[in-house]
Design a protein that fits this description.
161 residues, seven-stranded mixed beta sheet, Rossmann fold, alpha/beta, 7 strands
Length: 161
């Protein structure tokens, strides 16, 4: 586990780029944080780090539910905020996306936690990078990164700084 503080949107983007540069096909990023915590800003940086051109318009898929971006590795950006029922999540085809050879970033990942055990996730999710975001004020964000079962890679995901 690593904790990182950013003091501006630019620093959050930079953190995302550093994370994205270390991701490989098949990686799953689970984002946790309240509204306005910086999930979409971090995702913009991650997408750029994976290789998406900086001019690409990266927006939260709150209403579309899934955005797909074409970089050197395909990227799926999923937002579960508006989904309330398990059937809605299943109908997204989320399992296909999670287990595809893409980088998948999911906002509002707490909706994927098992009802029986809050330390486990539905759909057989084992390998993941959890990023918990806490907004301290208008610009200050605290990020807790927890890699779980991620395969070794070069350069190493940690340390990021």
């Amino acid at each position: 586990m690593i904790q990182i503080t950013t003091r501006s949107a630019d620093e959050t983007l930079e953190l995302g780029e550093k994370i994205g540069a270390r991701l490989i096909a098949g990686d799953l990023i689970l984002l946790f944080g309240d509204l306005g915590a910086g999930k979409t800003c971090l995702t913009q940086g991650i997408c750029q780090g994976v290789g998406l051109e900086k001019e690409a318009y990266i927006r939260s898929p709150t209403f579309t539910l899934i955005n797909e971006y074409h970089a050197k590795i395909p990227i799926f950006h999923v937002d579960l905020y508006r989904l309330e029922e398990e059937a809605e999540i299943i109908n997204l085809g989320l399992e296909e996306i999670i287990y595809s050879p893409a980088v998948t970033i999911i906002e509002w990942s707490e909706k994927l936690k098992s009802e029986k055990n809050s330390n486990e996730f539905k759909y057989g999710i084992q390998d993941r990078l959890e990023i918990h975001i806490s907004s301290k004020n208008e610009t200050l964000r605290e990020f807790t990164l927890l890699p779980v079962n991620l395969s070794p890679r070069e350069p190493s995901l940690f340390p990021l700084l």
